[in-house]
Sequence to fold (491 residues):
Amino acid sequence: MDAAEFRALGHALVDRLATFLETLPSRPVTTGETPAEVRAVLDADRALPDTGAPAADLLTRAVELLTEHSLFNGHPRFFGYITASPAPIGVLGDLLASAVNPNVGAWRLSPMASEIEGQAVRWISQLLGYREHGSGLFVSGGNMANFVGFYAARAAAGDAWRVREAGVGGPGAPRLRVYASAETHTWVQKAADLSGLGTEAIRWIPTDDALRLETRALRHAIETDRAAGDVPMLVVGTAGSVSTGVVDPLHEIAAICREADVWFHVDGAYGALAATWPDAPADLRALHLADSVAVDPHKWLYAPLEAGCLLARDADVLRRAFAYHPAYYHFDDGGGTNYVDLGPQNSRGFRALKVWLALQHAGADGYRRMIADDCALAARLFAAVDAHPDLDARTLGLSIATFRFVPPDVRGRLGTAATESYLDELNEALLERLQRSGEAFVSNAVVHGRYLLRACIVNINTTEADVDALPAIVARVGHELHAARRRDTRR
Ligand SMILES: *Cc1c(COP(=O)(O)O)cnc(C)c1O
Fold:
């Protein structure tokens, strides 16, 4: 492809994308097609052609396939999971990053990109009140960021028997233990499994009624394990749980970790950036007490996927977990950071650019406002649900509201086992119907054993009108399903 063709195709593509972004609110959130239908549209079984095809045709078809058969997490009525709308400047940033294509594994291979990554990491750290001069790096997402914190903790705890060389089962190795509440995201199982500790190394600490980790139980578990000769390796505190946005008692957990000399890691993939919100839970002011914090720029910094970030108290704790110095690398550039030493990746893409651009485009105040707006929209939704006669509001945490549909003729029998399990089933069916409809997209949570609908707003495109429309949509679909079930039982 020569420069002239690249220019023409690029302009045409950007024009189409501008229209796509502009018309997003008028499209359905998703199509509800089945895998078989999507495969048929794609002609998925077709073999790779031997001869090439014109780039213009390929790009036209790709735009068509993707804009007609996708779920749009940037849609104003996408309230599912925790997936953000992409900041347009981040979209352009990714284009620029891939054109320059620096390998941000080593400073010499990416002089400016490495420095931009360092600056973006520092800005994130300062924005959420972690440290002025901490360290950290970009990874693919929250799972990987948490893994990096986990491995840093493993290296620190296993220093005595050289865990990196001898392994977790090496001679003289005690059992390493990890402490987390049941509300912790599943990354912790994956990390315990893949690191060789095994998921049984995790001590599941109970939670209180508000689903926050019980610190008395944590203290007791650490003491018991230590008395048995095990080594407490890591305590995970969650800053914004994935189900309900709960923030663990991070101040107290930090104090316990300091006293017991255990690594304190905060999973703030979703909620750490809510520390910028004036009404944030007080425990979000405790992030600076953590040894490491995972945060997801592809959530509340609205970076296009993928961008996760791990913050650590200094670069050495990461080097001690990840650095090797093989003969075939010669990277010593007088103070430049070689990111290959700070994490598991070797070649590294320039994820930082889209985040660095978006941070400056909005500014710190812009982010404070956008995050506060999302939380206000969730609170508005919670109030609207609470006021609706056929919906029960359940929890509100950061920008996540949970609720369920309760038909009027069932309301008198709430709390009985049969009614509760009927409502679980009804709300699950409601979720399935709603997700396929394309009208609005919510996800689910199970709270105290009950199946709930869950709306999470991490979306620069959602307006008050979008939120105000949701209760009636949910109730309408709920009534349809409930009526159909009653007809079936009468028949
Ligand atoms: C989203 C999330 C994760 C996982 O992050 P990914 O970016 O999906 O890998 C982990 N923990 C919490 C609390 C999250 O919200």
Summary: The pocket of pyridoxal-5'-phosphate is lined by residues 82, 141-143, 185, 187, 238, 240, 242, 267, 269-270, 296, 308 (CB under 6 Å). Residues 3-70 form one domain. The chain has a mean pLDDT of 96. The longest strand covers residues 231-238.
